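batch job 7 of whatever, protein = No pollen germination related 1
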Amino acid sequence: MLCACSGEQFKFEDAPQSPESLATRDFSASGLSSRTGDWESKLEDVQVDEVESTLKEALSLNYEEARALLGRLEYQRGNFDAALQVFQGIDVKGLTPRMTRAIVERTRQRKPRSKGDIIPPSVMSMHSVSLLLEAILLKAKSLEELGHFREAAKECKIILDVVEAALPNGMREGIGEDCKLQEMFHKALELLPNLWIKAGLLDEAVTAYRRALVKPWNLDPQRLASVQKDLAATLLYGGVETKLPPHLQVWGSTTPNGNTEEAILLLLVLVQKVAFGEIKWDAAIIDHLTFALSVSGQFELLAGYLEQALPGIYERAERWYLLALSYAAAGQDEVALNLLKKVAGQSEAKHKPHVPALLFGAKLSSQDPKHAHYGITFARNVIDLADQVNEHFKGQAHKFLGVCYGNAARISISDSERALLQKESLTSLNTAALNIKEDPEVLFNLSLENAVQRNLDVAFDNAMMYSNMVTENSGRGWRLLALILSGDKRFKDAETILDFALDEAGRLDQLELLRLKAVLQIAEERPKQAIETYRILLSLIQAQREPHSNSTVHAKSSDSESEAEKNMEMAAWQDLAIIYTKFGSWADAEICLNKAKSIEFFSPKSWHTTGLLFEAQSLYREALVSFSVSLSMEPDYVPSIVSTAAVLINLGSQSLPIARSFLMNALRLDPTNHDAWMNLGLIAKMEGSLQQAADFFQAAYELKLSAPVEAFT
């Protein structure tokens, strides 16, 4: 019997002959050239029989083994049609029970041989089984080469069925030492899911992957890891939800719930194997894990695994950048920004600059005024370092630079510095608008900066372009447009804009726009309509408090949405308290304030509104206490600073210097606050400085003419 189950490919070793095989010579003599692979006509049964007869005589093979060997030869030469036709002559269905029995008998662990323990001669040898399994595998590969993927998968599945029927508990070590059974089976395990994927049957592919993993098939660690990785990738990107079958749900309540959770578990196992050195490092594992943890909202967990990556896998700047992305997505912007500062630090000065990390640092810094100067440094570095490869980053860098300049201007204590920063802000944003004309964010920021600087006409034009450019609904765009119109005292137009936006707004945007509509109605001195609008707003918030999904992504999303709803509800009660205070309804105002404080007791605006209520009742001492409580929570809360000064003015001339100090501090924080200028005018008038008082009153009047109903930022 020919040994066809060695670890190497079968070769004829007939030195005097040409490299052509015996089967090839017979085919050539019959006028069929297998050397060129050009089969112009179908094989005749007589010719096949002749070749089989020759192989039988030369190699002592039976009918099926001869066909298996002949098919392998044709497959190796790329004659897939011919190989397929040869393989189809093998009665696989009839041989399946015999192969299963042979594997059972030949792999059974026996005691020392006894007379009654002799394997019957009718049982196939392991060499024959391996040869036939290889024939089935090559038949599947031939079908794959010819584009018949579904049929190929069915053929490949036969190998798994045969071996699994014989070895229901898996494959022990040592089976593959003297034949190719294990090798053929492992190849079939890896090939089957790929065939199902090519056939477009992803659920069958997932089933095949799981089948390869649920039992110990003696796969080497690297091969096993490859199957686990491929299953995770299919679960993540296949687009077909495939739940674990009941017989695999052995973990009870901790069983993976859905594709993403199963993929994450597989990838975490692989990461652990990499950490222990069981398998080689594979960047694709972290790439898949990054995607899986990102879509499931597990950003902190992702950061933890990135930190566990061994030194040398990532460059330092790249590692810090990836960690910063993870922590920023988890809402830990301060941690992310500290990591990005390392990228811009002296330790990286001799290394190639990591432009994406610097740009991300500029973006994070632009979101918080206290980091504005860091953002300016980050953005300038990007502009200076960007080469031809990173040229497209320059426009984004100018955008963030403009935003950071604007934020720096708003916290500047020097008038000259503030004016310079505001000028630089508009210059950078205009440069960004020229470089990236299709970025709506540039137009929004340009509109916002012009609005803050009270260039309302330019701000309105940019806001309109932003609204036209953004295809989906943008609540903040409509809000900015309405505020710009309110600064022009076009309250009716602003309300019309809000009515239009409310029809298209999302849930949270709708709440914010409703509140702004109520504020506009207050400015128009329509308190009854404003109260009705607040009633609608509060009823919507109450109706939207429903149980959310238990998934992590929805849980995190619902947490942020619930927090936004709480803030909106508190703001509504605070605004209602101010309305009732103005009309002398002290009891109603106090009820509204208690509602607001029950939501968030330590809210500067709630205590500020409490002070306004006391001030309206001429309880100036109590009002000062309330304003002081507000300022103890937020020392730079400008409304409480101005109101404290107003109360001090009412208390008499002895308090005027203190009041002036409060007002100067308020103007340092917000130079456009017309109430502060008005109260400064009152102090100057009380002190007899009439010209100075007139200048202050003039400034207050001009600023009030362009003041929106709410702050732009």
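notes: The chain has five domains: 45-105+124-219, 297-435, 438-500, 506-544+561-598, 602-712.
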